[in-house]
């Protein structure tokens, strides 16, 4: 089984557990992180598959080096745009779905993983992208611990 399939299954399990428990915030955080990791794993698996396809079709690694130069050191968003362009000659429209949700997932994951503590009210959002989520989802504070 590919890593991306295992990770996406884990993300679904976490989301379901979060809905069934009284502490959904913890599961939501884990779900966001695992979803992003699953998408990145899928992208890397697809790139590896493409590597073997290019090598088999061209009989050379020269064409593969062009692909690597295009994506090496790029952000996950840049790679998510570059790889379909290289493979199929077209890519996602950055201004539309599903890329908009993907972009938001990456921003949310980065906010969670690279959290920078600051003096702020609990309900202050760390950045505009995360703040915009408030219009789509109800945010509630976790219950205070006794």
Describe this structure in words.
The chain is mainly alpha-helical. It has one domain. Helix content is 66%, strand content 0%. The protein contains 6 helices and no strands. The protein has helices spanning 3-20, 24-58, 62-71, 76-88, 99-113, 128-133. Helix 1 (3-20) packs antiparallel against helix 2 (24-58) and helix 2 (24-58) crosses helix 5. The relative contact order is 0.09.
Brief descriptors of the model:
single chain, 146 residues, mainly alpha, 6 helices, elongated
Taken as a percent bin, the fraction of beta residues is under 5%
Q: Stretches where pLDDT falls below 50 for ≥5 residues?
A: none
Query: Major β-sheet, in short?
Result: none
E-strand count:
0
Ends apart, CA distance between termini: 44 Å
Question: How many domain regions?
Answer: 1
Global shape: elongated
Helix content: 55-70%
Order of helices and strands: HHHHHH
Mean pLDDT: 78
Instruction: List the total number of helices.
Output: 6
**Radius of gyration, CA atoms, in whole angstroms:** 19 Å
Which class best fits the helix and strand makeup? mainly alpha
Care to give the gist of this entry?
The protein has 146 residues and is mainly alpha-helical.
SSE blueprint and pairings:
Layout: H1 3-20, H2 24-58, H3 62-71, H4 76-88, H5 99-113, H6 128-133
Helix pairs in contact: 1-2, 2-4, 2-5
């Amino acid at each position: 089984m590919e890593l991306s399939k295992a990770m996406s299954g884990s993300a679904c399990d976490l989301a379901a557990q979060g809905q069934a428990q009284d502490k959904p915030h913890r599961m939501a955080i884990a779900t966001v992180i695992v979803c992003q990791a699953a998408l990145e794993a899928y992208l890397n698996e697809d790139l590896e598959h493409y590597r073997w396809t290019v090598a088999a079709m061209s009989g050379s690694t020269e064409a593969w080096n062009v692909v690597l130069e295009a994506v090496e050191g790029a952000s996950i968003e840049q790679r998510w745009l570059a790889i379909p362009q290289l493979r199929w000659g077209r890519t996602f429209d950055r201004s539309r779905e599903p890329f908009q949700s993907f972009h938001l997932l990456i921003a949310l994951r980065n906010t969670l993983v690279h959290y920078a503590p600051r003096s702020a009210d609990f309900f202050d959002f760390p950045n505009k992208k995360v703040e915009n989520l408030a219009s789509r989802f109800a945010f509630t504070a976790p219950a205070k611990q006794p």
